[in-house]
Design goal:
The chain is α/β, with parallel strands linked by helices. It is 38% helix and 18% strand.
């Protein structure tokens, strides 16, 4: 099988205290740890030559693409949260993202819906996905379910994910694991699988 790492929405707007999502009262418990572990996974994948695909949840100016199901009744729109081209919408610096990276922008929870993610992965010959990111029980779970329904083998890197509360994170992980949508693992597990003994050295390198 050929694998790829899919990093879901690890953006300033979700993961930084001054981001738009925390500012409307939906901050993520354990975001800092999740970002750190996602960085470990990204470094391991890059070192192993495994494709890394980043997704970004964002909206165009004017937000015509946001649709009627607004975050918190429009609070996010009210502060221009996750607006394309802003700091809020960008991938956090810790992951070493650059414009040259494979990046899929989306405006719905499921990263496969109305995006180029599936043809991109098919074009890379990928049939195994390692998934991490935020929010565990929302965009990550929606994407994992969609991947499963498209016949990808999915591994969830649970310690590189975060949700609004630990309970919601744990519930999302439990559903994905117990329903068979994903095998549950950690960022360190990914490093070991891809790099063997070199995984420890990669994990120790600063982002």
């Amino acid at each position: 099988m050929t694998g790829a790492l899919v990093v879901v929405d690890v953006q300033n707007g979700f993961c930084r205290p001054e981001g738009s999502v925390p500012r409307i009262g939906m901050g993520l418990a354990g975001a800092e740890a999740a970002v750190g572990n996602a960085a470990v996974a990204v470094r391991a994948a890059r070192e192993a030559g495994t494709p890394v695909v980043f997704t970004r949840h964002l909206y165009r100016p004017g937000r015509a693409d946001e649709g009627p199901n607004l975050y918190r009744g429009g609070e996010l729109a009210g502060i221009d949260g996750l607006l394309a081209g802003t700091w809020d919408a960008e991938v956090v610096d810790d992951l070493g993202w650059t414009p040259a990276d494979l990046t899929v922008d989306k405006c719905r929870f499921d990263a496969f819906l109305w995006t180029s993610l599936d043809p991109l992965l098919r074009g890379l010959g990928v049939d195994q996905l390692y998934v991490c990111g935020v929010v565990t029980n929302i965009c990550v779970e929606s994407t994992v379910r969609a991947a499963y329904m498209r016949d990808y083998r999915v591994t969830l890197l649970a310690d590189a994910c975060a949700a609004q509360t630990p309970r919601l994170h744990e519930a999302g992980v439990e559903v994905m694991g117990e329903c068979g949508f994903a095998t549950i693992a950690s960022a360190a597990d990914l490093g070991s699988a891809l790099l063997g003994d070199r995984a420890v050295d990669v994990a120790a390198v600063p982002a």
